[in-house]
User: Fold this.
Amino acid sequence: MGFWWFGRKSAPETARPYVPAWLTTAEAEVGFARSRDGLVAFVKSTAVWALFRGGAWELGTVRGSSLMLGGQQVVGTRAAAIGGPTGGTTIDAESRTAIGQILTALRQHGLIDT
Assistant:
C-alpha cells in the first residue's frame, strides 16, 4: 500500500478526487485512496472503464495501438485520407454517391483521416 495516499471523507475539496478504498486494520478510519495518474477502475453502474489521467477521470475511453480479435488485427492506427471519386471518362453518379457515403462513414468512425 506504499503508493496510496489516504485521506478522510472530511478532507478539503482541494485534496480530492478520492476513490473508496478498504483499509486493512480495525483501528483504521474509513478512508479514501488519492487518485493518481494511471489509476484504472471499472465503473459497475455504467459498465465502462475509467482512467485517471491529467488530473481528471476519463470514462469509457480505450487507448491502444491496435484491436486484435481471434488473433487477427481488425483495427489499427488511423490510415491516411482517401479522396472522393473524381474525373474519369465514364461518370457514374450512383457509384460516386455510394463511394462518398462509404468514405464519410469511415471518417466518422475515425478509421481514415479527413
User: Anything to note?
Assistant: Residues 6-59 form one domain.
